Amino acid sequence: MSETSKQAVERATAFEKTVLPNGLTVLVHPMPGFTGVYALYGTKFGSIDRSFVLDGKRWDLPAGVAHFLEHKMFENEEGDAFTLYAKTGANANAYTSFDKTCYLFSASSRTEENLDILLSFVSRPYFTEKTIAKEQGIIGQEIKMYDDSPDWRLMFSVYQCLYGQHPVREDIAGSVESIAEITPEMLYACADAFYRPQNMALAVAGNVTMQQVLDAVERAAIPEKTGVVERIPVCEPRQVAEKERSFSMPVSKPLLGVGFKEALPEPENQLKLEFLCDILTELICGSMTPLYRKLYDENLVSPGFSGEILSVPGALCTVFGGETSRPEYVRELLLQEIRRLRSEGVDAELFTLCKNQLYGELIADLENIDDVAAGLFSAFSRGRTPAEEIDTLAAITLEDVNGALQNLLQEEYSATVIIRPAGEKKGELAS
């Protein structure tokens, strides 16, 4: 490891952490010399959290509640947070993923005011039948927009084939029908259960100090919440729900998705297995691999064809996909390459290149205030630190990858989805 890399890793461990009496975790990474501040206030509550017990009462949520709640948290009786941010000049946003919801802002000045806005509207929910009905129409249009996105449809179609029970198979925003079931009582229950300080963290990076952040939290007077919350996990079988799916959309070229459902690891092995899966996607069809060169040189795929992993509570899978003129043939080439690597082993030089590429990306993220803050919260939500992530990746060996390949990416637990141009005749999948 070069001296520059060592210094970068040391910066990753330089963040300050405080757990307040109400349970809120505050993570601050002062970055002297930077003019901006990026703050992220997040909760470990996402679209897959569909069933829970709060103080003895069970709640079973329709799809899309976490995302719907994200939209509504920007409003209160006085107005909406975006209006307040406009006065300070900050850029604000929010997002919901499978396992988290985050509210954020970036600004070059007036840090205290922006922190006050962030902490005030997220901590004090306000819902009415009227405002919910209005939002149902707005989000309904958003859902229809994503339904028209081939890439989005491909991704969720693969998840639906791999998983029969896990909520990862449902769109993060839900459906028009599911969000129509949302009520104020339901949203208040979710806010009470998951927007409690002990389930949240405030991560801030840039030209800021821990004391500035703690002062803002004190001004917000975030109340401590009592009571018992229990998440109810889904029992997901090992087998895939559906081996093959094919449908048509108005696309100019077919899209192929091939997913592999993995067995869930023990918690202590989770981080290492995530990195092993990530490295394998690069070793199989990354831009430096023989397979990618063949696919690209023969004009079989578009440049965006790639692999990625999904790792959330209760689900771990790897998905390869993108545009291809010959989906059945490309699928077979992909499976052949996995079989070859399993039999012959991974090329040592290619392993080093791919690992160094991933390592470099982690180090590069330490130089951007938004990536630093987002990384702090992401690591917190999974019970680790950015430094542990870097150390885990650095320790992975060629032997680790070859050993993992004997159990991962098994065809028995795979599923294939093909989206064909409208009007194109459906073909048979290559065996």
Structure report:
The protein has 16 helices and 16 strands. It is of the alpha+beta class and 431 residues long. It has a 6-stranded mixed beta sheet, sandwiched between helices. Strands 12-16-13-15-14 form a 5-stranded mixed beta sheet, with helices on both faces. A 3-stranded antiparallel beta sheet has the order 5-4-11, covered by helices on one side. Helix 4 (111-123) crosses helix 9 (210-220) and helix 10 (270-285) packs across helix 16. A hairpin with a 4-residue loop joins strand 8 (91-96) and strand 9. It starts with a helix and ends in a 10-residue tail after the last strand. Helix content is 44%, strand content 21%. The chain has 2 domains: 15-231, Metalloenzyme, LuxS/M16 peptidase-like (Cytochrome Bc1 Complex, Chain A, domain 1, 2-Layer Sandwich); 244-421, Cytochrome Bc1 Complex, Chain A, domain 1. It has helices spanning 3-12, 65-72, 81-88, 111-123, 129-147, 150-162, 176-179, 184-194, 210-220, 270-285, 290-297, 327-344, 348-365, 369-381, 386-395, 398-405; strands at 16-19, 25-30, 37-43, 51-54, 57-60, 75-76, 79-80, 91-96, 101-107, 200-206, 229-231, 244-249, 255-261, 306-312, 315-323, 414-421.
Strand order of the largest sheet: 1-2-10-3-9-8
Helix tally equals 16
How many E strands? 16
Average pLDDT figure: 92
Helix percent band: 40-55%
What count of domains describes the coordinates?
2
Corresponding CATH superfamily of the largest domain: Metalloenzyme, LuxS/M16 peptidase-like
Distance between the termini: 45 Å
